[in-house]
Amino acid sequence: MTDADTDRSGPTAAVLVIGDEILSGRTQDTNTNTIARFLAALGIDLMEARVVSDDHGRIVEALDALRSRWDYVFTTGGIGPTHDDITADAVAAAFGVALPEHPDALAILSRRYGDDFNAARRRMARIPEGGVLIANPVTDAPGFQIGNVFVMAGVPKIMQAMLEDVAPRLRTGAIVHAQTLKVSGVGEGAVADVLRAAANQRRDLSFGSYPFGHGSVGEIGTQLVIRGRDADQVAAAAHDLIAELRNLGIDVAAA
Amino acid sequence: MTDADTDRSGPTAAVLVIGDEILSGRTQDTNTNTIARFLAALGIDLMEARVVSDDHGRIVEALDALRSRWDYVFTTGGIGPTHDDITADAVAAAFGVALPEHPDALAILSRRYGDDFNAARRRMARIPEGGVLIANPVTDAPGFQIGNVFVMAGVPKIMQAMLEDVAPRLRTGAIVHAQTLKVSGVGEGAVADVLRAAANQRRDLSFGSYPFGHGSVGEIGTQLVIRGRDADQVAAAAHDLIAELRNLGIDVAAA
């Protein structure tokens, strides 16, 4: 995106992934990608993502940096019943509010666990003061929203389900349209000049190049991705780019 | 990790993933996980990871925040031949140095491309002043190291190959040993008290809990992960935890 595009941008957002298991390499994070695609469909621009460990100070610091800068912050992880689940405590600290048991959360959890509703599980009913619950149709234990921060589970299936409850609360923007062109038989260095000229000419659009097949046997080439909020402009740019590349004898087609 | 453990920690590191394609959701980042596992094997603690877009200001800002705080920073993405590849420019700006063509990089690229060595490809020979090349055995175009920052390709296969050249340059630490226990038939709320007591008792170790099978048909349970730099302590903690959980009639085994 160029500066010229900024005026027409939608709301902005950041993702904060919380969890030692991501930084140790034990677990491959997929929540960021899920949230990225969810936001793209709503016309909300994901501006940055961060991963921090289960450390109170680091969570608070990252939360404060992100929530003051972007319209929305989505956190994943650290809201379970065990001692390493400290996200609610950190969010309450960041907002400077108490962390009382929320009556609705208490009712939901008590209904789910019945006789097994012990002290550890009761921790999951603690919601920062002023927080609004986010429904969890998978295991019931809720997430919560406070201000512009949405606090969700780390388990991908639960996180994804929570997004459904979050969606109606978000201000949406114009969707970014994307068109991918597949260049075959040459590397991206062969199309860089044409691509740069197109990017200079159409400053409301963004042009990306993502090579494939490097150094391996078989097909080489690059995927050119044109993105912008005006579908007609994107289509026109794709049309022109295909024509210019074919003029140079380059094999290109809409992907 | 607890504070008590900090003294014995290895070098620290951060990952900075650069690329619109990650934030748009088009591409699932896997480089962070690859680097996390690479660092873990060297006893280097990955402290945080960030993703930023192909934006000069954002890259410089994130770089400066990370390189001043952690021992090493590993960046991926944005070092190709196209106009959206601006990582080298941003790194030079962050370090306040020029971005001249590096003679060795020029030689490598000129050899690879021969008659096709055009201006766009020549951009890849620009290395921030004082930078040392990182070998790219896949497509030749090198990455580089400047100070404590390692700048690598975004394509996973190339990034992974570059790590081989980076490894010998890194100060290593004591490896973190991990032992996983699999608890079956109950959720993590059923083991939380025992886990918390273990964590309080052994403050040199970290104890994590990662539930599985939530709300679905079939097996439910949680994976308990004990981590620490002293293998004997980790083994002893695992042994004790298994005994305590079995005393409560809980099905648990080393995973």
TrEMBL record, chains A, B:
Name of this protein: Competence/damage-inducible protein A
Membrane-crossing segments per the record: none
PANTHER family referenced in this protein's UniProt entry, alphabetically: NICOTINAMIDE-NUCLEOTIDE AMIDOHYDROLASE PNCC (PTHR13939), NMN AMIDOHYDROLASE-LIKE PROTEIN YFAY (PTHR13939:SF0)
Superkingdom as given in the UniProt entry: Bacteria
Organism listed in the record: Brevundimonas vesicularis (Pseudomonas vesicularis)
Pfam family, one: FLAD1_M
Domain MoaB/Mog: 14-173
